[in-house]
Write a structure and sequence with these properties.
By secondary structure, the chain is of the alpha+beta class. The protein folds into two domains: 1-40; 42-146, Pleckstrin-homology domain (PH domain)/Phosphotyrosine-binding domain (PTB) (PH-domain like, Roll). Helix content is 32%, strand content 42%. Strands 4-3-2-1-7-6-5 form a seven-stranded antiparallel sheet, covered by helices on one side. The longest helix is centred in the N-terminal third of the chain and has 31 residues, at 9-39.
């Protein structure tokens, strides 16, 4: 009987693999429920999970990195981190420019990010950087839906 379990290492690996898949599915389910409660009937034009946010240029210190989801709504871009519960809402009419870049706060991020220049809540020029899946599509969607002028 002991020999039966001795060569079953694949079972342990399969358990870990499906555990990770289950955890990811749970996190996405939880995030989708939160989005539904927060935004209700508002139409979500684009949504990405696993987005990395590197902070705003107006924040002091080095760029920070948090992971969460990014939403494009008809009037704003909304980011929420998964663990820190950090939220950022950028109103569409305050966005000046959206473009690919590789830096924020003068620091090279060594990766391509979507950078958004906007006017913040203090009426100052600000920028935010996001690592998103399919950056060209995000840039085009933001330009088409929020930068209509």
């Amino acid at each position: 009987m002991n020999n039966l379990y001795a060569n079953q290492g694949w079972l342990f690996i399969a358990f870990i693999f499906f555990g990770i898949i289950g955890y990811i599915a749970y996190i996405r389910w939880r995030d989708r429920n939160w989005i539904g409660k927060r935004f209700g009937d508002q139409k979500i034009l684009a949504m990405s999970f696993g987005v990395n946010y590197f902070g705003r240029s107006s924040e002091p210190g080095k760029p920070r990195k948090s992971s969460g989801f990014l939403l494009l709504l008809s009037d704003q871009i909304f980011y929420r981190s998964r663990t820190a519960r950090l939220e950022l809402s950028i109103v569409g009419r305050n966005i000046a420019k959206v473009y690919p870049d590789n830096s924020i706060k003068g620091y090279n991020l060594h990766q391509s990010v979507v950078k958004i220049d906007f006017i913040n809540e203090n009426d100052d020029r600000d920028s935010a950087a996001f690592k998103v899946p399919y950056p060209p599509q995000w840039i085009q969607a933001i330009q088409h839906n929020l930068l209509k002028g």
